Hints:
Blueprint: E1 2-3, H1 14-26, H2 36-56, E2 63-66, H3 69-80, H4 83-88, E3 91-95, H5 100-111, E4 115-119, H6 129-139, E5 143-149, H7 161-171, E6 174-178, E7 196-200, E8 211-215, H8 241-252, H9 254-276, E9 281-282, E10 293-297, H10 303-312, E11 315-316, H11 332-338, H12 340-344, E12 346-350, H13 357-373
Parallel strand pairs: 1-11, 3-4, 3-5, 5-6, 6-7
Antiparallel strand pairs: 2-8, 7-8, 9-10, 10-12
Amino acid sequence: MVYLDWNATTPPADEVLAAMSAATRDGWANPASVHGAGRAARRYIESAREAVGVLLGFDPRDVILTGGGTEANNLALLGLFTESVLAERSVLITSAIEHPSILRTAERLEARGVTVVRLSAEASGAIDVAELEQALTTHGPSVKLVSLQAVNHETGALQPIQEVRRLCDARGVLFHCDAVQHLGRLPSELLHGIDLITVAAHKLRGPKGVGALAVKCGLKLAPVFGGGAQERGVRPGTQDPVACAGFAAALHRAPAMIERYAGVARLRDLLHEALRELECELNAGTGARAPHVLNLSFAGWKGPELCAALDLEDVHVSSGSACSAGTAEPSPVITHCFGRDRARSAVRISLGEGTTLEDCTLALQSFRLVLRRNS
Ligand SMILES: Cc1ncc(COP(=O)(O)O)c(C=O)c1O
């Protein structure tokens, strides 16, 4: 099996499995219980909180553990635009190529009266900082939040997050960054100083169903769910010590994982060079991109059909983000940046720290076989 869908999710690391196995045995109690068994379970919760804080440059007390990236993104947006905030600052600036957990939540906010500005990312695959500056000037003090991802989930395009942070800081506007595709792949220091950051464990070889929202000290968020006092009441519901143990283990190994990602760019480029012979177009734009993503369109093919044919050869790639799998619509990101025809025939190949030259060679053979058989 050749797994080249690391943007959808990553295989759990051995250290993660070992930590989760230990926590299954001795961290099963309710982490909110005050007795010894509860305290044993709570240690796993706090170890994840601590590890997120260390990597992102936050005090662990400012880290809210969530059920993953989608939930953290929802909490950032819905938690900030409360009724009282809306009366004073009612503008959200985001982009047209965000993950659906931002796009759909922005639509919900729009229905409640928030003005949503969606920056385009057409030419370079990334937003244009001048366009952001213009939007900040146009809407002035009405802007509450800028929410932009660090790395695009479909093209790997890098967003200019440090320039965005500086612009937001200078104008007293909050900046939320969806760093789900960044953490574990690119240096976490690049995220330091951002007001709110979303991360998810399963993109860095941790378990699914756990993530975090790091929130600038003193910033108040309204809970999305009603319930108990867990996570300071901002994210009520019993936390999962086993998932948190795996999350902490994944975060501890993240710096080494980042180092290994540098080598992944070479493999990606080799694969791209070889696939070029098969007449494909690169969906990347002109800007900088992450080392591990190769999004290609193969004319005459429908992305899902090509993925299905490759799947029969045991090569796993995707034709969009995993959360959109099963939908008939082509990728909104590729549609926005490169048009509908390119989106219909797009395939995302995403590599990871475990990808080998042999994987790439096997994948290439399968691409050749499938594309030539059907040409
Ligand atoms: C950029 C980005 N944000 C958010 C998410 C959602 O994270 P989760 O799968 O943990 O809900 C994803 C998942 O693919 C993503 O790629």
